[in-house]
Amino acid sequence: MNLVFLRGETKMQRQAGVLFATTVLIFCVLAGCRTHTASEEDDKKAAINVVLAHELACQTYDFDKEDSLHTPDARVIEESYPHPLEPEQRQSYQVYADAGIRIDYHPQDAVAEVRGNVAWVTVTLHSIWTADTPAAQAMLGVREGYATYVESFILVKTPAGWKIALGHGGMLPPDFGVEPDYLQEHGGMKFAKVAEGGPH
């Protein structure tokens, strides 16, 4: 009788042990999934923050900051071919700064995809270009101009964090037939005006 009782207890203990081990394994797997998801989300946010910092550096003509956000061999695609980011970008923005052009960027709808050590970020960039001097007005052709860009970036993860390796921007053409609301505070592109007879 005692032997049967002991064997029954041992069997129950084994079952309890298996149940406990299974429960622990399930929690570990779930925790691992949560950690992976959290890590991926953190990478997406970090990559987007690098792109937003890049836009701010362009807006404020902070070339040293801009350099720190790119890989040494970063490229930009313009007119359908890639070329070195520097010195062209610095030179073009320096011309704006010297002329007295003030840029106000409103980045919105930034999204990211991460695959290992590579991230792709795209952002809608509303911008207001203000001519603060006669030379700036002559360059822009207006006192205040507006442009909307869609910019895409490929970033790589380095020991120092995410860095931009490739960038490309496209501008909504002025004859598109719509006028975006450049001062909207939320996501998406709100149209302030749609021209009759435009190619919409």
| Strand order within the widest beta sheet | 2-1-6-5-4-3
User: Number of DSSP strands?
Assistant: 8
Oligomeric organization of the protein chains: single chain
Query: How many angstroms does the end-to-end distance come to?
Result: 89 Å
Order of helices and strands: HHEEHEEHEEEE
Structural class: alpha+beta
Strand content: 35-45%
What is the residue-mean pLDDT, rounded to a whole number? 76
Helix-residue proportion: 40-55%
Shape: globular
Total helices: the number is 4
Uncertain spans, ≥5 residues at pLDDT below 50? 1-9
Structural write-up:
The protein is globular and about 50 Å long. The model is unreliable at 1-9 (pLDDT under 50). The protein starts with a helix and ends in a 6-residue tail after the last strand. The strands form 2 sheets. A 6-stranded mixed β-sheet has the order 2-1-6-5-4-3. The longest helix has 58 residues, at 2-59. Helices cover 42% and strands 38% of the residues. The protein is of the alpha+beta class and 200 residues long.
